[in-house]
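Practice problem: MerR family transcriptional regulator
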Amino acid sequence: MKLLDIGVLSEKSGLPPSTLRYYEEIGLIQSVGRHGLRRQFDTPAVTQLALISLGKMAGFSLDDIKGMFAKDGSPQLPRADLHLRADALDDQIRGLTRLRDALRHVADCPAETHMDCPKFKHLMQFASRSISTRKR
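Answer key — structure tokens:
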């Protein structure tokens, strides 16, 4: 079995060694030994780190992602959770698309000032409601 030094794994994954040590500390990945003071990982760790990155990109927390790995490190992806997260991403995409369209309208609005633009006023009201909702 070929072992990867933490520096090599860092290079292959694009993650700093401090992140790799943290992931090991919280149980997301596991070193298989040491060479001196440097941690050694087996080659499947590269795949695990790619899956962790994908999970983070999809909006899963590190705790959620940790639950998606079996004790041996193999992925056990809960399909229902993946569907729910995909649905949440669809909602986020729709919201961001509306925001993008509103910003483009405001940028091109013929009103003399942004404060005279009804769409800009609506956008500001929406932003105010979003802030008060997040504080709860």
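Discussion: The longest helix spans residues 79-108. Students who identified this feature from the tokens alone can consider the problem solved.
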